[in-house]
Amino acid sequence: EIVLTQSPGTLSLSPGERATLSCRASQSVSSSYLAWYQQKPGQAPRLLIYGASSRATGIPDRFSGSGSGTDFTLTISRLEPEDFAVYYCQQYGSSRFTFGPGTKVDIK
Amino acid sequence: EVQLAESGGGLVQPGGSLRLSCAASGFTFSSYSMNWVRQAPGKGLEWVSYISSSSTTMYYADSVKGQFTISRDNAKNSLYLQMNSLRAEDTAVYYCARWIAAQNAFDIWGQGTMVTVSS
């Protein structure tokens, strides 16, 4: 089973700053099956990025995804107040779906 | 509007059973694979189970295999999760989520239903 590790666990930044979130897989993941989600307290997760780098419908272009193999990155170019949340990466492979433990982006 | 709405959660004693439902609207339910994902209080997301559009294929997380059963009724636009022999560690918010094959991602999520296993 592929294990996803996310770092850092918490990222403390100010609005307007750039956020770089990492997702590392225990073995190679097809980029086609790597997605990122945002979750705010009391809400369901929301799809941000699919296929490692494609933005989902309605997602602002300040969100971007990159990476391949075992290393993937979610970048938020300039943090808006509504971007402070928990972010999860997720992969599918071998009839299994797995999520990373999440990175919390909070206000510094 | 595309929506998923879970129901059926509640308080159940250890060893008990519960059946969750997820009502879909605003899209052709029978064309999509569906999933259950859970989140224990204060914890991250854990995928639970998958069912293909025509119910021919089901997958389960190792943590629930043999304990939970996923099913669907396309005529009723509904997804189900039968949960048996419940344990404290099954306490979580349970979300249903649509899998969109064109994007290989969970693109629509319900609001979740809380299951609490406690005596």
From TrEMBL, chain A:
Gene3D superfamilies: Immunoglobulins
Keywords tagged on the record: Adaptive immunity, Immunity, Immunoglobulin, Immunoglobulin domain
Organism domain of life: Eukaryota
GO biological process, one term: adaptive immune response
Cellular component, GO, one term: extracellular region
PROSITE patterns: IG_LIKE
InterPro entries assigned: Ig-like_dom (IPR007110), Ig-like_dom_sf (IPR036179), Ig-like_fold (IPR013783), Ig_sub (IPR003599), Ig_V-set (IPR013106), IgV_Light_Chain (IPR050150)
Cross-referenced SUPFAM superfamilies: Immunoglobulin (SSF48726)
Span of domain Ig-like: 1-90
Record's subunit section: Immunoglobulins are composed of two identical heavy chains and two identical light chains; disulfide-linked.
Record protein name field: IG c1241_light_IGKV3-20_IGKJ3
Natural source organism: Homo sapiens (Human)
Organism lineage string: Eukaryota, Metazoa, Chordata, Craniata, Vertebrata
